[in-house]
Amino acid sequence: MQSEQMEQVAQRAYAWAQARSAPRDPGEHVSLGRPLRVVVFLVAFGIGLILSILVGGIALGVAGGAGAAAVGAPLGLVLGIPLSLVLAFWVSHIPRVAAQWERGVVLRFGRFHGIKGPGILLVFPVMDHIQFIDTRLLTLEIPHQQVITRDNVPVTIDGVIFFMVQSAERVVVAVQDYRYATRQYAQASLRDVVGSMTLDELLSERDQIQSRIAQVVEEHAKAWGIHVDSIRLLDINMPEDLKRMMSRQASAEREKRATITKAEGDKEAAINLAAAASTMATSPGAMQLRTLQTLDGLGASPSNTVVMAVPVEILALVRELSAKLRGAPIRENP
After folding, report:
1. Separation between Cα atoms, residue 158 and residue 142, nearest integer Å
2. Which CATH number applies to 138-238?
């Protein structure tokens, strides 16, 4: 039993240490008026002590003379210390300081009284309650959301929402927690918008999806006094088997384009070769020049030696004899 109690105490201590070491919420009010309140407390406490001494001495002096006045001053000091402490504590909580980006929503006896700030504010304890609102551009993380697209593909999406407070009164009066409400509505809108689209649309139309989600959230958050600047999708995760299939599809698509490109290149090369062959057929000397160029290309290196077994003149003589046998006219080489 004692071990369980010790374990619970250790867990509570660990939780307390984690809470103490956690980073401060950027939207939390920063108390800029603490030095001012300390000064006001000391001044009010000193004034209270002086008044207590004077009142005690005067009161007893009037009742019993000079001797009683000498006794009344210490008595007034003793009685005035607790009263001065209470008064100084109350007065020190009247001045508050709001930063340039903060607005203070004041509720007096539970009813909306006004918006104050930035600068020094006067808030009277007991009857006034103030809540500071950050009017800067704020960011909220949209945690991972498991969404099923229209073509039944499960995806996990996370993002971030950028917004700012336009009406400090409405974010306090119209909604309980505007940060939590904005985050939850953004999550619901993200699931609704992504669930109405296919996977291909989700991957190719990210900008349009972000604009649609921001528009949907803006329409409802406007009544809370919030302006949604934008919503950005950070990551889209899909099942591993789907990723492998998409990779194979992309590889096949690239191979298809490569095959088509190669076929088009072969077609153009065949057309050019046919045109070259036609040109060489009309010029008898062109084939000899081509033969010599080929031989020159083969023998460009000193280590290569090309030996022509049949001279070009013999080939020309053979062509002339074959032409005579066919009875065709012999064309002179240019």
Report:
1. 6
2. 3.30.479.30
